[in-house]
From TrEMBL:
Transmembrane annotation, as ranges: 106-126, 151-172
Coiled coil regions, renumbered to chain: none
Name of the protein this chain belongs to: Transmembrane protein 223 isoform X1
Sorted UniProt keywords: Membrane, Transmembrane, Transmembrane helix
Pfam families for this protein: TMEM70 (PF06979)
PANTHER family (alphabetical): TRANSMEMBRANE PROTEIN 223
Higher taxonomy: Eukaryota, Metazoa, Ecdysozoa, Arthropoda, Hexapoda
Keyword Isomerase: no
Keyword Transmembrane helix: yes
Gene Ontology cellular-component annotations: mitochondrion
Amino acid sequence: MLSLIFKHFITPKTVLTQMRSVHGIAQKYFMRDENISSATMAIKMFLMRHVRLSNGATRPTSFLRPNGLLQNVLIQRRQMSQLDVNTNVQNNVVLYKLEKSAYYRYMRIFSIGQLFGWSVLAFYTYKPSFWDIFYTDIKFKEFCYNHMFRLSTFICAILAGPIMFLVIYATCARSIKYIILNKGGETLSITTFHMRKNKSTISIPVDMVRCTADRTTGGGVLPIKIQNRSFYYLIDKSGTFVNPKLFDYVTG
């Protein structure tokens, strides 16, 4: 078996000759498919380089090492695909939308309701004697024994209500409802589920918006960073990317 293999050994030149014929067939039948043509050209140039190295080069080509030529071809293809995206739109174009208005409306109602409930609890658990620790000679141990339950409930009420309200408020203010590329392609309009309607929509230049993660990766939320603004804006991946290619180009 080994003798047959060495007897019919295929040289790189033979492979190159066959690849030239394959490249001719690919150009004939797939001349409209730029991806196949580019891939065939990359393989052909790689084999030509391998033949030159085998005829007199001192450094062999490794198939495990990334080839710079192939990487350049892929980069050029990526750049050409980006140039195909036209951002100079004639009308406003919706890039993303999330239809969860009822969900965030219930969140706002809950935040106000729980704040009111904790406030009522704090009102009825408060006692003026809580200040005795500062104005009388009562010992701390005795003070805790007399007011431990009511005082702990009061402190929990005055802290839990506002903190939970602020968390829900910030979540609604940073959860994106719409992303719209405005006419001309220079600015973006971002609409959130903000509790205050006059602050729910902002218009910013396109170059101030950057997506910090890939849209196709795992996770349920896609973070968006806007310059000169604290915290991230959040895109729920369960929403609809109306123009995904344009979205990737604008926010990429």
